[in-house]
């Protein structure tokens, strides 16, 4: 996934730390 797409989907980049699935996808990049 693209970082911009993740942020756009979440609406708040800070929420990433509370979402283990997104964190795992980011770490996999």
From TrEMBL:
This is Uncharacterized protein. The lineage of its organism: Eukaryota, Viridiplantae, Streptophyta, Embryophyta, Tracheophyta. Residues 1-29 are annotated as: Disordered. It comes from the Eukaryota.
């Amino acid at each position: 996934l693209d970082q911009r797409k993740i942020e756009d989907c979440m609406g708040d980049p800070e929420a990433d730390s509370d979402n283990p699935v997104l964190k795992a996808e980011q770490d996999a990049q």
